[in-house]
Design a protein that fits this description.
mainly beta, nine-stranded mixed β-sheet, six-stranded antiparallel β-sheet, 11 helices, 31% strand
């Protein structure tokens, strides 16, 4: 099956005809949210009388740019952007306040985004927001404040860090050879069209023996383009278009690694990009399958060279025991899942690869990645690049690949975050970079009439495309050298040791890490006692509990949201002071040990653009012995209201003073942070015992949890109990946090569950009551996150109860179709049967009258006109011209058989001939296609 989408040109042009269609038909076939939200799709508090909600006003009506279109189950919430929104990796999401409503589907113009309502509880319409990667897209979104701009412009660049003695960005001794291969396309579960098996290979010429393999996977981008510069999202590409060669965008990185002795391959994933809008996980499992299908071929070719394509035969044989995976954006989430699936098998019905694992993943590099599942692999080392000017995944949610591993497994694997100041999302791929790409490309960082003080092109902090690509290649090579080659000399570039790689050029790159030879010490949670500060919630809608105000512009990658507006188990310590000297005491529920460590490493956030925050740090043991470890200075990152710059800087203080003071480092009772700056704010993310070195990583045998999705018909009678499909595989036992989102509830319930293979600890029964009344499909969503000693594959699933009853038919009869001025024209709309949900699958299209004067905007009640059409009476115009088209909806509440549609008229005191109104009934069939019905007329006479 071919997925067809019209090519579009990303420009400032508005397609008027498409905008009209957007507001009338509603395109119900495109309305499936992608991926599906982990929130109930039905509610007893369903939207009532949407037709009575106007738009564009501050008094409870829909904000500008928002519309509700369609009727019945075809009803959709629509947001139209003034300009096209480029196809990217972050998901566009609709919120009301801080509550996720769902994930819309983009129309062909990339301006119109529509989400099927199906009874979703909308809530306060003034709080509607369109977000992507935490960035506000709709026109009422946040704009940088003058204070933020001034602060950013005043921030001076920091002095360069000391150079690391070993520079991984220096090219190696090997000449490189390039080529490509194309194999037969493959079928992946859930995708109707086959996915290509195509790749670019760059290898070292003449390198002896088997060589380590680095595989690259690009992210989500346009799939097809033509010579006119039009871009599209279809797959396969339509006639006259060709695929965007995104897989060729990492040739600079590949050539550097190949010169150093690595065989490299960059694979194409356009077939996934063109179809992942229907995948609950955003395509993570499909990308994992594609990665492992390529790895399986490379494992074959390593032993059967004659069967390999020419580009592979030109390369040395690959050493499949030393594999590095590099993923960009959604490709990052894909290679993370591939690393997990290489350790523990995914459910067969979700996986496109069924063969044995004949390789070992030594590490992953994740560039501006998505992490929709927030399920990082704890026992595979990783480096996550966070682009400071990312305009796509702008909340820098990839930070969770670091933070989300804490306490889950043994903690030996190093997980590094690399914050690259001034880098955007796209330029790491040359095929997404203007001036370098074969297809049309753009700068993803969003700009408007007000230039951003940090990230607009030409600003001091902003990197050029070439500088960004040079820095990216250098740090990819650093990860390869540490994770695959085991060269500990490059570790200081990745683990927060404040060293720079000269080959990265002018790029300012900051790092921190967890794992390695760190030992956990102070990881904030609610069992901790804090004096002088508070334990704050990283994700919470309550400003009194949240670490950062939910209503402000401040964004922290550490606090990236997941599937729920409040998430337990994620905390930090918030500090605020107005004068120096007030200590913040942090005491965990049990003493901690930092014995054997050289230093105490803390990750501390301070506001962007601030300098000179000073803290004194002290430890106290259980016997009361106290040692002042020393003072530190923390500077904020360059940032603005458009960047996620509340990021933890790693600071270290030696433990030598504690040793001299004979503090018992095996039994440390408390940590004390004393501000020495005049006033300020800071947040402690965590603190660890640190010593140098990179330990050998051996993956633990952990249980794995995958949530499935079951669809059942409601039936005509009786009560049946179904269970959400849950698969627990692997070995041992562990703990996960289970969330269950039931229809009618604003937030999910949750509990912590111990899981082991063969157990039924995760049991989510759903009662289904059959009936013969029409209703909407009802989804009970379930999602899960690892807590300790377990991993998660498919994090989101549930059970959908599908309506199997026909929609009632509609009949219309006049009640008062000849009236005098000041009375209402009325028609009764009746259903053939009551329904369990509100029915508004009928309405009237107001048409020009054939002869005589037509009822105008001055002839009807002004409040009715505003609430129905969001229009004012003046200037006078026929009702058929009040909007395009003029549609008068009907609404029958759940459990009722009929309603009246009224057009209230007013006395105007003028002597006029009879005026009339002509309306054609419009209904929707079971496929939600509009059907024209009978024509009705109303006549209004002058009042006597």
């Amino acid at each position: 099956m071919t997925r067809r989408t019209t090519l579009i040109r990303v420009s400032r042009t508005v397609t008027a005809a498409l905008a009209v269609l957007t507001l009338t038909v509603g395109w119900p076939e495109l309305a499936r949210a992608s991926p599906q939200p982990a929130h109930p799709q039905r509610s007893a508090e369903s939207i009532s009388s949407i037709s009575r909600i106007s738009r564009g006003e501050p008094d409870g009506r829909l904000p500008a740019g928002w519309r509700i279109t369609g009727t019945g189950a075809g009803q959709e919430l629509v947001w139209t952007s003034p300009d096209p929104v480029p196809m990217g990796d972050a998901r566009v999401e609709f919120y009301t306040g801080d509550r996720l409503l769902g994930r819309p589907v983009a129309a062909q113009d990339r301006r119109t985004f529509r989400m099927k309502l199906d009874g979703v509880r909308l809530g306060p319409v003034t709080g509607l927001k369109a977000l992507a990667g935490g960035r506000r897209l709709d026109e009422s979104g946040a704009r940088p404040s003058p204070d933020a701009r001034r602060a950013a412009e005043a921030a001076k660049p920091a002095a360069p860090l000391p150079a690391n003695p070993v520079d991984p960005g220096v090219p190696g001794k090997y000449r490189t050879v390039s080529g490509e291969y194309t194999l037969k396309s493959v079928r992946l579960p859930g995708f109707s069209a086959p996915v290509e098996m195509r790749a670019a290979v760059v290898s070292p010429a003449g390198a002896p023996g088997r060589r380590p393999l680095a595989l690259f996977l690009h992210g989500r981008h346009y799939t097809c383009f033509n010579a006119k510069g039009d871009q599209g999202m279809s797959w396969p590409c339509e006639a006259g278009t060709r695929p965007v060669p995104s897989h060729r965008g990492y040739l600079r990185d590949q050539k550097l690694l190949a010169s150093q002795g690595y065989v490299t391959v960059s694979i194409s994933a356009n077939g996934i990009n063109g179809q992942d809008d229907a995948a609950d996980d955003g395509g993570a499992q499909a990308r994992s399958s594609l990665v492992r299908l390529h790895l399986a071929r490379w494992a074959d070719w390593a032993t059967h060279r004659s069967a390999a394509p020419a580009a592979v035969r030109a390369a040395p044989p690959a050493d499949m025991s030393r594999v590095l995976l590099v993923g960009h954006s959604r490709g990052g989430e894909g290679v993370n899942r591939a690393a997990l699936d290489s350790l523990s098998r995914p459910p067969a019905d979700q996986d496109g690869y069924r063969g044995p694992v004949r390789w070992r993943i030594r590490g992953t590099v994740l560039i501006g990645p998505t992490v929709f599942g927030q399920n990082p692999v704890p026992d595979v080392p990783s480096m996550t690049v966070l682009p400071g000017c990312d305009g796509d995944v702008s909340d820098l949610q990839g930070q969770i690949y670091v933070d989300g591993t804490r306490g889950v497994s043994r903690g030996a694997a190093l997980h590094s975050a690399v914050y690259m100041v001034g880098a955007n999302h796209n330029f790491f791929n040359s095929e997404w970079t203007p001036g370098q790409a074969e297809a049309p490309a753009d700068d993803d960082f969003w700009d408007d009439d007000t230039p951003d003080p940090v990230c607009s092109p030409g600003k001091k902090a902003r990197l050029t495309a070439t500088s960004q690509q040079r820095a990216g290649a250098t740090y990819i090579a650093a990860a390869a050298r540490l994770f695959v080659a085991g060269d500990d000399r490059v570790r200081p570039l990745l683990d927060g040791s404040d060293r720079r790689a000269p080959s990265a050029g002018p790029a300012r790159v900051l790092t921190h890490a967890v794992g390695g030879k760190r030992t956990p010490a102070f990881l904030p949670d609610t069992s901790m006692t804090v004096t002088g500060g508070r334990v704050c919630a990283q994700v919470d809608t309550d400003p009194g509990r949240a670490c950062l105000s939910p209503e402000g512009d401040a964004v922290s990658p550490h606090f990236a949201m997941w599937e729920t507006p409040r998430e337990p188990g994620r905390h930090a310590v918030a500090m605020r002071w107005s004068k120096p000297g007030g200590p913040v005491g942090i005491r965990p529920a049990r003493p901690v040990s930092v014995a054997g460590a050289d230093s105490l490493a803390l990750r501390v956030i301070v506001p962007p653009n601030t300098t000179g925050t000073r803290l004194d740090i002290a430890l106290t043991d259980t016997s009361g012995r106290r040692a002042a470890l020393g003072g530190v200075r923390v500077d904020g990152l360059p940032g603005s209201a458009r960047t996620a710059s509340y990021w933890g800087r790693e600071i270290r203080v030696p433990l030598s003073a504690a040793v001299r003071s004979k503090v018992d480092l095996k039994h440390v009772k408390s940590l004390e942070l004393t501000p020495r700056s005049g006033s300020g704010q800071a947040w402690l993310v965590d603190a660890w015992g640190w010593r140098p070195g990179t330990p050998v990583v051996r993956a633990a045998s952990l249980p794995r949890v995958d949530i499935g999705h079951l669809k059942v018909s409601e039936g005509d009678s009786g009560v049946r109990t179904y269970r959400v499909p849950v698969r627990v595989s692997g070995h041992g036992s562990g703990r996960v946090r289970l969330f269950v989102s039931d229809p009618g509830k604003a937030e999910p319930g949750y509990r912590t569950v111990t899981v082991r293979p063969g157990s039924h600890a995760i049991d989510v029964p759903v009662e289904v009551r059959g009936n013969t009344r029409f209703g909407y499909d009802i989804t009970h969503s379930v999602f899960v996150k690892a807590v300790r000693g377990a991993v998660v594959g498919s994090h989101l699933g549930g059970l959908t109860v599908q309506n199997d009853d026909p929609m009632p038919t509609v009949e219309v009869k006049p009640v008062a179709d000849r009236v005098t001025e000041g009375q209402s024209l009325r028609w009764r709309v009746s259903l053939s049967a009551v329904a369990d949900v509100d029915i508004d699958s009928a309405g009237f299209e107001i048409q020009p009258v054939g002869a005589g004067p037509e009822l105008s905007t001055l002839d009807v009640d002004r409040t009715w006109l505003r609430e129905t059409f969001d229009e004012s009476p003046a200037p006078a115009r026929p009702l058929s011209k009040v909007s395009e088209p003029s549609f008068l909806p009907a609404f029958v509440p759940a459990g009722k058989l009929s309603t009246e549609v009224a057009v209230p008229t007013v006395r105007d005191g003028l002597k006029e001939p009879e005026e009339s109104l002509r309306m054609q009934l419009m209904t929707y069939d079971d496929s939600w296609e509009p059907k024209k019905g009978l024509v009705f007329t109303g006549t209004v006479r002058d009042a006597p």
